[in-house]
Design a protein that fits this description.
With 395 residues, the protein is of the alpha/beta class. The chain has 13 helices and 19 strands. It has two domains: 2-232, UDP-N-acetylmuramoyl-L-alanine:D-glutamate ligase (3-Layer(aba) Sandwich), CATH 3.40.1190.10; 243-391, Mur ligase, C-terminal domain (Protein-Tyrosine Phosphatase, Chain A, Alpha-Beta Complex), CATH 3.90.190.
Length: 395
């Protein structure tokens, strides 16, 4: 099981790829966007299914011959007792941030964190990110488990240098170093279990390296050989996450980033590894969610983007135009509001200049919008870009 404010889906898909190769495609995976039980895939609107539905999927996975299951575990799942009584070989905690504190989610950070940590108590092994907020609080709650702490070499070594006997003797550490990150692939080394292991992957960005490391450690803990893991992560596909298209010296990118931490890290990665001449960003903000997200997203767009197109992103019962206006008040760069998301993205693609990067965030491959209590079908960002490319051949 994987929990965290960000990174759950990426870790899930990386582990699914590793385990599919190891088990001859007998791995089931329950993610934010789909339920994969082997030979059957179902769409879903919940990160973690409701209890009876979850048990039905488990049963189907067993009937399909699956030997392993990887699943995202949301804080709402814990709050609603969706996985009550389940037992996990490994639980991953990627990070936590102030993104789900709202009247419709968690009333406070204490409630949000408590739900996340309660999941880890149902796990034999805990894989814990070293730079997460509330690290000490989380560790103290799971110190009776076998814990592996992972993160950058600097962060892990700082924790290991503590002289207050904070860590239990059987706690292990995994440190990432010697990273070489480009706009096409990533190389890194991992010191873990007395070995220095080298890996290459097609996924880009330092945060994706961290997600991959969580998947590597989890796979090692359940007995997957390192050579198998190394081979599997060389070419991993995570739909809708840092999905890149190239057209006539222009680059189009899709990502699910939708809050401060994910957008900040996305912009920083782009600046360091891709170095575009200019950036156009297309995004919105979900309705009935953490309100400060709108200010955060606006200020980041003002800092990093050259042009902004604000649009629909699951407004719920709120007015999409009003949400966009709230974001726009923090932006002085050229900024347009186009409520129809397909039209907004198409305009950005039409106006892209040589050397420009167009980033569309928040929806990825999702083909619905949450509007007034229902899910309305629409074209996904990926479909819009791919259709645009067919109508604009390179030659």
């Amino acid at each position: 099981g994987i929990t965290g404010t960000k990174g759950k889906t990426t870790v899930t898909f990386v582990m699914k790829d590793i385990l599919d190769k190891y088990t001859d495609n007998r791995c089931s995976a329950f993610s934010t966007h789909e339920i994969d039980v082997g030979t059957k895939v179902f769409e879903t609107t919940l990160t973690t299914p409701e209890p009876i539905e979850l048990q039905t999927y488990f049963d189907m996975a067993v009937d399909e011959g699956c030997t392993h299951c990887i699943m995202e575990v949301s804080s709402q799942a814990m709050k609603m007792n969706r996985i009550y009584g389940e037992h996990y070989k490994v639980g991953v905690f990627t990070n936590i941030d102030y993104d789900h504190i709202s009247p419709t989610e968690h009333a406070s950070m204490e409630d949000y964190l408590g739900c996340k940590v309660s999941f880890l108590k149902q796990c034999d092994n805990v894989v814990l990110y070293s730079d997460t907020r509330y690290f000490e609080t989380i560790y103290n709650e799971v110190r009776d488990k076998h814990v592996v702490v992972y993160g950058s070499k600097e962060s892990v070594e700082k924790l290991m240098s503590r002289d207050d006997d904070f860590f239990e003797r059987d706690t292990e550490f995994a440190s990432i170093h010697n990273e070489d990150l480009t706009d096409h692939n990533s190389y890194f080394e991992l010191i873990y279990g007395g070995e220095n292991r080298a890996y290459n992957t097609n996924l880009i960005g330092d945060y994706n390296v961290e997600n991959i490391v969580a998947a590597i450690i989890s796979s090692l803990l359940i007995g997957i050989p390192n050579d198998q893991i190394r081979s599997s992560i060389r070419d991993v596909y995570v739909p809708g996450r840092l999905q890149v298209y190239h057209w006539k010296d222009r680059t189009f990118m899709i990502d699910y980033a939708h809050n401060y931490i994910s957008m900040y890290r996305l912009y920083e990665m782009v600046k360091k590894t891709m170095k575009p001449k200019s950036i156009t960003v297309v995004f919105g903000c979900g309705g009935e969610r953490y309100k400060k997200r709108r200010e955060d997203m606006g200020r980041l767009a003002e800092q990093y983007a050259d042009k902004v197109v604000l649009t629909m992103e699951d407004p719920g019962f709120e007015s999409c135009e009003e949400i966009c206006k709230e974001i726009k008040q923090y932006i002085t760069k050229p900024c347009y509001i186009i409520v129809d998301r397909e039209q907004a993205l198409t305009r950005a693609l039409d106006e892209a200049q040589p050397g420009e990067l167009v980033i569309t965030t928040g929806k990825g491959i999702e083909s619905t919008q949450r509007i007034n209590g229902t899910f309305v079908q629409c074209h996904s960002d990926a479909q819009v870009i791919e259709h645009w490319l067919t109508e604009h051949p390179e030659e």
